[in-house]
Inverse folding.
């Protein structure tokens, strides 16, 4: 049993030594501003969203909406060699039997076509493409905001765990001091083996809490490194001091959120796109007028034809009119569905506003509650520290039981943890 206790103590003290010296190693300090800067530049989700934005910008051109003319260069060439027999209906020309024949044909043209009118469908399509480009810009801003929120949350998680780590170190130091004193007293017969065992159990418990906090701290750093697109095992410390603005006003915050929230702006943009789609569908009921023209060259040669060589060079123009008068009511269905999409987007916009209003209200209530808790827990911590100092003196003077001392120690740790959680 003694050998087991000795081995356990050596392992425990080795673990404590490794943990306690960890903060002594050089670590980079990462501020919240630096975290935001790295996230904006390096986060993969932001880069992907920026690529989508660039694609939408490339798509929002007049040519993609059919507002620019199309120019084509076309050409063809053919050659034929063989034997030909020709029988004429009159005797003006002699008949030809099995005569070797050759013919060639060369054509080339520059063609220009332009849609003059399609019920303003091209104009509405161009507006839609620009609205889609605006939507991708807003989505990029939303992705940046979400990444910064996620970065800030993990940053403050690390700050919380750093403070938790320091608190647990203090608790381990208290338990270790108690264990050493009880051990010496036990060797001189002034403390029972039960007292020593109790001190060892408390030391083990505090050590486990310290180890678990160390693991949580490292895991949180890994998460933040992933968000920042850095090496996962990059070590650092964060600045734990937080300046809290205690003068925020709910009504001012609500006004700012309603006017500037990107989720609302995005949904408003989607509503405008749906309304534009309805106009595009209505344009299908209108006639379409297309203009086209060619400037072409043509050469045809044949040794068996009356005309052995024919060449032409000039322009040709066309005007086309088409009007789909009936298509089985498919256009009517498209317009009805477009109206439904508009109504759905209006409801979604209302839902987004309600969701944001709810989140703001809950967050502000939590904010005011935390401010009150910080003031209360700060006073509680002062009382807990005074109580523990007195309990420690009485315990080492033999005037307080080990259970009461442990209760005072645990209460001190809980007070620090509650303040750390709300701060």
């Amino acid at each position: 049993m003694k050998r087991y206790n000795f081995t356990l103590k050596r392992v425990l003290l080795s673990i404590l030594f490794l943990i306690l010296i960890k903060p002594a190693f050089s670590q980079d300090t990462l501020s919240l501003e630096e975290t935001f800067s790295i996230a904006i530049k390096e986060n993969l989700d932001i880069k992907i969203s920026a690529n989508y934005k660039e694609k939408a910008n490339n798509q929002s051109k007049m040519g993609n909406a059919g507002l620019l003319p199309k120019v084509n260069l076309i050409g063809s060439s053919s050659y034929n060699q063989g034997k030909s027999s020709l029988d004429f209906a009159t005797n003006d020309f002699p008949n030809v039997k099995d005569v070797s024949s050759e013919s060639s044909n060369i054509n080339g043209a520059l063609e220009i076509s332009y849609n003059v009118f399609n019920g303003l469908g091209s104009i509405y399509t161009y507006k839609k493409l620009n609205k889609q480009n605006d939507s991708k810009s807003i989505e990029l801003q939303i992705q940046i905001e979400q990444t910064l929120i996620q970065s800030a949350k993990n940053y403050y998680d690390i700050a919380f765990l750093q403070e938790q780590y320091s608190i647990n170190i203090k608790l381990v130091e208290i338990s270790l001091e108690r264990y050493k004193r009880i051990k010496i007293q036990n060797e001189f017969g002034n403390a029972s083996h039960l007292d020593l065992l109790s001190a060892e159990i408390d030391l083990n418990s505090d050590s486990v809490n310290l180890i678990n906090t160390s693991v949580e701290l490292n895991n949180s750093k890994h998460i933040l490194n992933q968000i920042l697109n850095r090496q996962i095992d990059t070590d650092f410390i964060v600045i734990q001091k937080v300046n809290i603005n205690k003068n925020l006003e709910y009504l001012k915050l609500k006004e700012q959120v309603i006017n500037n929230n990107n989720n609302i702006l995005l949904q408003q943009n989607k509503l405008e796109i749906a309304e534009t789609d309805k106009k595009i569908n209505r344009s299908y009921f209108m006639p379409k007028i297309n203009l086209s023209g060619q400037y072409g060259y043509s050469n045809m040669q044949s040794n068996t034809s009356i005309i052995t060589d024919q060449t032409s060079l000039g322009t040709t123009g066309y005007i086309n009119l088409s009007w789909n008068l009936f298509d089985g009511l498919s256009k009517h269905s498209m317009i009805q569905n477009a109206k439904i999409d508009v109504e759905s987007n209006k409801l979604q916009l209302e839902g987004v506003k309600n969701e944001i209003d709810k989140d703001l209200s809950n967050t502000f209530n939590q904010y005011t509650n935390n401010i009150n808790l910080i003031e209360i827990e700060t006073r509680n911590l002062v009382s807990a520290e005074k109580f523990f100092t007195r309990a420690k003196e009485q315990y080492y003077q033999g005037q307080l039981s080990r259970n009461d001392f442990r209760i005072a120690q645990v209460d001190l740790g809980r007070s620090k943890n509650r303040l750390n959680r709300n701060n």
In short: The first helix runs from residue 2 to 21. The CA atoms of residues 30 and 238 lie 5 Å apart. The chain is about 65% helix and 15% strand.
